[in-house]
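User: Some background: our group keeps a shared notebook of sequences we're curious about, and every so often someone picks one and asks for a predicted structure to add to the entry. Today it's my turn. The entry only has the sequence so far, pasted here. Could you supply the structure so I can complete it?
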Amino acid sequence: MQCPSCGAEVPDDAQFCIECGASLRPAATGATTSLPRWGATLVRCGVCGADNPERATYCVRCGAMLKGAVAIPGPGDTDRLVGPPALPAPAPARPWRRSARGDIAGLAILLIGIGVLLLVRMPFWPGILFVIGVSSFVSEASRGRIFQGIGSVLWLFGIAILFLLPRLWWPGLLVLIGLSVLLGMIQRSLARP
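Assistant: Of course. Here's the predicted structure to add to the notebook entry:
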């Protein structure tokens, strides 16, 4: 087969000319034949790895220039890679540490609140919910999560009040849900830059 661009003799299964690099139209019919071995030395394409005759300037498979072409290293050839060194790995994140003062203050409020509940004749469930709400708020606020603390106070105080007023259970629950949504919207609006 001859190259229509420069007239050079090329193998029948070549997709590009070995002399000028022009694209050759693929064979419409006939079996694919392997590249004939013209000499003892073959030039391996650094881009696709195809064997080419020694006199070839361009690869018969991919059309890449053979002389002076940069070889693409395989997966195991990392020692031949050229370029700037990789960026260093980021420092590991600091492990999350709990605020000891906030935990101690929350525990102290919880214990004092339970002690007061045992001494005062108040219904247990609303009282314990008030105590847990205050304790939770102190713990969350000491960690800098004020909105989470407000959310727990809102729900625990709200449910405690609903225990005291059972006729308002369902409307009160809807009010708590609405207040939670409002609190979340305020939190998201303050978080935006």
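Suggested note for the entry: The chain is about 40% helix and 5% strand. Helices lie at 100-119, 124-142, 146-164, 169-191.
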